[in-house]
Amino acid sequence: xxxxxxxxxxxxxxxxxxxxxxxxxxxxxxxxxxxxxxxxxxxxxxxxxxxxxxxxxxxxxxxxxxxxxxxxxxxxxxxx
Length: 80
Fold this sequence. Notes:
- The structure is a single chain.
- By secondary structure, the chain is α+β, with helices and mostly antiparallel strands.
- It has one domain (2-79).
- The protein has helices at 48-57, 61-79, and strands at 2-10, 13-25, 32-44.
- It has a three-stranded antiparallel β-sheet.
- It is elongated and about 50 Å long.
- The two termini are 26 Å apart.
């Protein structure tokens, strides 16, 4: 997994965006795929660290699992 964070000051206050890219490999070996977890955003009127935490709170286990399934589904379709 490779996370990227971008934080800046915006019109509504501090804003952070988190994007997580991952490489998934099937247990059977040889099959792998790349996916991106949907971008998560956090905004706080004055605290960048809180905005950052709010963004990371949205990167859930379910979102990561869905990205892994999508990555492997794409490789299975290509292999057929």
